[in-house]
Write a structure and sequence with these properties.
Radius of gyration: 16 Å
Shape: globular
Largest sheet: none
Mean pLDDT: 88
Order of helices and strands: HHHHHHHHH
Distance between the termini: 51 Å
Length: about 160
Amino acid sequence: MELLRIAAAGYNVHSKGAGTLDPDNPVVRLCAEGMMSEGRGDKDQAHLLFRQAWETATSDFERCIAAHYVARHQSDTHSELEWNRKSVQLAESCPVGQVRELLPSLYLNTAHSYELLGNIDEAVRLYERARASTRSLPDDGYGNMIRNGIVSGLRRIAESRKPGP
């Protein structure tokens, strides 16, 4: 179950309903298997499983989860950004209660893509959206990882904007 929780970006997978992921959902299972492949260092298999999750998805919620993981396996930052943006757009089309805990991670990843591409204003906007949405995160390792990622991103940008000596 913990792997499913990680694969679901912090969602509760122990029961079904709003704000939870069904551990029997084929998309969730494929993403969990992809995470296991990633953990074993088999990135090619992980990529195939995440793409299969995308192709299996039948709802915006499932597509948002799959896109989040497909983004991780893109060969260039522009493609990664497109998948991250797709994941955010799909999440924002879902009921808020269904994606509340997922949004901070999606905004964080999208902000980081923009940062890497040099679109600092858009990166800051999304880091701030991520920060504003963290109230929904659990107070645990996952929640702290996302919060720390947001703080790190904003800190990097602030440091890069400081005038040189």
